[in-house]
Batch of 3 targets.
Target 1
Amino acid sequence: MPLNSRSFARTALLAVILALTSSVQAKAGDYRLSVSDRIAIKVVEWLPSAGEFREWTALAGEASIGPNGSVPVPFLGEAAAAGKSPAELGGEISKGLQQVFGLNIAPDVTVGIIAYAPVFVTGDVQAPGQFPFTPGLNVIKAVSLAGGERISADALLRGERDLISASGSAEVARGKLHRLLARRARLTAELDGESQVPVPSELSAVADGAAVVAVEQAILRANASRAQAQAASLRELINLLNRELTTLAQKQATVERQLEIARRELGNIKSLASDGLAANTRVSAIEQNVAELETRLLDIGTAILRAQQSISDTDRNLAALDNDRTAELTAELQQVDGQIDELNVQLNTQQALITDAIILGAALQAEGDELVAYSYSIVRAGSETAGTETSELQPGDVIRVTRSIRVASP
């Protein structure tokens, strides 16, 4: 690349990096990462000898902060992310990569926020549930996303409908959770080389727990049969190639003997021809036979090498079967763990909705003409505090809207 073109490309790439960094800072500000935030990681290294930037595409990508507050980073493992700013996390990843790869200059790591953890609105609102977080979100905005406070005249009927809806959603989520728990048990059994899927403790007292595990047991047996069939097929191919090698070796020995005889005959005929006792046509015929035998010998040698290479490739494929399956099972197990965490959050939310619907229904049935007032509380990091309509929210917050009811004075 000409010097001016390389300088232009370097300047342009630096401008892009600065723009991305500025965008993240403008969006995130002093924001501290939290569980369920989705982030994008970009790694760029400056190469002084080449005078250009190089992006580490293998490390770039998107990731979600898990329930333990960490995010997976290639070569570094789990990096603690919750409670840190994007810039702080990027700096720690940069230092870690510099140490792992022994770099003189630490690579530039940019962490951007793709999506924040959602907020949850529960209690006396029209449409309880989870909603996307955006910077500047406060209580009244979140309540508006949930349809506003529940103030309609048919509040009692709606509470009954909410109870039925929340109960149904919880039952569906619970069924999915049971199936995922059984799948996790099956994946763990496969990774450990077990032939039986144990019943998870969470399903031991569940009515359909044994049936759900039986389905995964059937899948385990099918996977084991398929793996055995693949291994048997590869072994049979190796045996076939070995038999072919044996045949080729026999042909090679036969052709070598024929070639040795033909060469001796050619020497004798040439001696006779030089004495005028044999025709030159006879010499030419034997020379042609020798050439054909040499060509056949070369073809056989090539076929032997090709068969040996096929055996070597098949041996590698056979050895890779277990490694590939282990990698697939590990990836699937990680995915299932994430889905289980999501379902547990959904079940907790639905259970809260069920409890609120029961309490509200009982209150409405007990009260006559009521005066209604609403109060708000924010559940954050396991603790609940009172809030107002203008209270600023953070990703992952749960906003609880409470309707106060009292009998009107006569």
Target 2
Amino acid sequence: MAKIEKLLVSLFFFAVAPSIVLVDADFYKSMYITWGAQHASLQGDNLQLVLDQTSGSSAQTKIPFLFGSIESRIKLVPGNSAGVVTAYYLSSTGSQHDEIDFEFLGNISGQPYIIHTNIYTQGNGSKEQQFYPWFDPTSDFHNYTIHWNPTEVVWYVDSIPIRVFRNYENEGIAYPNMQGMKAYTSLWDADNWATRGGLVKTNWSCAPFIAKLNHFRARACKWNGPVSIQQCASNITANWWTSPIYQQLSYAQLGQLNWVRSNYMIYDYCTDTKRFNGQMPPECSKPQF
């Protein structure tokens, strides 16, 4: 009986807590097209982004969030996608913005995509990690999830963690926990840097380039201004993302993470001593997982 009562209380908190939003809807209800409307299609639970020489396209959520789990299934541009970037990320606004990125860098036919990740805190980025996918991201949809809570940010691909950024704010290292962020997705031309540092340019004879997305879900805390900082970070029943199970990866998840890093990581800013002239970012000396 006690277990049933505890479950009912938990469900009650989840149902009535004003800061909790479960966007268990479709793309159409959750997002709107921000630019390139003539190049995008938003129908039900399906979003299609198109890029040609005239324009790319983009969409964003109607509301911002602070902490939670943001996910979507994406099927990337097939064929020769050199110079083309499909972006899926969270971001606040302004010069001191926070941002958590998935960017998928296209390549010439037969070469692998690059999964480019980054995080900005108070306007500062330069925290890139890059990976090759262990599958063909153009042949089918794959799930890409950003899990963000007061303790850590975790990037997942098909439920496998590929990267962790932990909160060391008490040691003077900035962490994204003070600004609500909307979810964005876009398809755009970045041939000045995306493929081999810009050496391979976009082949417009392959246009239009098309990326497809579906199953957008945001189990997250709605941002209502500064009052949300305490509400969304508090360890109450409704805020499932603050529970101990989400404060650190499990032993099995750490095994998956190390497998990805050992076999598919191609760049880690924390090992790029030349770039930082030996003065590495302070978080690089901390336990990463």
Target 3
Amino acid sequence: MSSPTNSGLFRTKTVEQSISETQEEGFRLKRELRTLDLIVFGVSVVIGAGIFTMTAQVAGDMAGPSVAIAFVLAAVTCGLAAFCYAEFASTVPVAGSAYTFSFATFGELIAWIIGWDLVLEFFVAAAVVAKAWSSYAGGLMGSEDFTLLKVGGLTIDWGAALLVLVLGALLARGTKLSSRVSAVITAIKLGVVLFVIVVGAFHIKAENYRPFIPPAQQNVSGSGEGLKQTLFSWATGADGSAYGLFGIFAAASLVFFAFVGFDVVASAAEETRNPQKAMPRGILITLVIVTVLYVAVALVLTGMVKYTELSTPEDGHSRTLATAFAANGIEWAGTIINVGAIAGLTTVVMVMMLGQTRVAFAMSRDGLLPRSLAKTSKHGTPSRITWITTIAIALLAAVAPAGDLGEMVNIGTLFAFLLVALGTPVLRKRYPGAASFKTPMVPFLPILSAIFTLWLMANLSIETWIRFLVWMALGFAVYFLYSRKHSVLAQAEGGE
């Protein structure tokens, strides 16, 4: 086994050290999750509203029937990353996901950067999805504005805030209870997804698949100009395009959002019984299930209606799965699909909040955030962090417009994928016999994972990159002003 590096910005912790810290009294999480619980968490967070709305939007505006290929490309990127996550999670079964993995390979500074990045990913995702849940719930009540309250010049989304507070209370009570609630809600939304696939399959028309890959169109509306254009377009001078081969690539970068969250399974490693076996199974089985469902829905949708009928109209209101059913005279299906979307969004918010609290817990236990926040309750959960996170997300969801913040989730997730991929060969070299699950074809597969990840990152807008870099700069400031001096490893250095 490798020894830790205990000085400088890149001081690391050994696997043994990380695991031993999980037994510290007062900072111990309760191990009660099994493989099925992890799969439920994974499916519940990945199958969200994206499958009900994003599929139609991307099919109509960017890829046509080949949106199914875009889902496969996004799934391949996630699959490559999943192998790397599985090896890390089986070797270092400690809360914190990519943050903890980076601490064991690249050291404290890089671990802080990725932890700060994950905080952004989960925090923003939970708030944005909570607002979408509120809108869907309002729609079922007769108006999307039903959960909005006007106070002076401020619009408060009390529906989104209420959802976050209820889910925060469940998480504070225990991960197992959260898993049971999530299982029930996940069963509902999976039922709706299967309804879409089975009923929709009877209305597929083969001619709607022709052409399966529509001819490319250059300089399309919405392709982006200035800061809205992708980094790839800016760097190469290429015109924005839809359909064709590059349309599929661009679509893959967008539908990747639908897969965001499968990595949150790794954040529950410390609360899992037999994590060496359960974590790889939970991560990989989750990805297989959701990929099959996404591709099936994409094929059914584009078979029910011509892709041109799914393009976003001038009023900007995107098409959804309900659009395809209405076009086939099945208007009543819209209500069922809305119920599925609400169920899907509920579990997404819950599991994103779980990921956020576990990453913050790991960072606090290491002293990079105030260590008192990592105290666990009688339920074996980090209740202080859970409630602080819950209140903060509720406030953001209540008053902040969703805007383009959702794009920040993509770049945050992809950045985590990149570091985990690059860290896998390093982990294998330092701990050659520690992993119970081994990523195949190392270093070839992790390098391929990094290349796929960088490609998707290059297809995000310049505006998103600027916001991301600003957030990272703020993170560096916090690290050098507070975290570097207060980290547990720094304190150990001073005591030597």
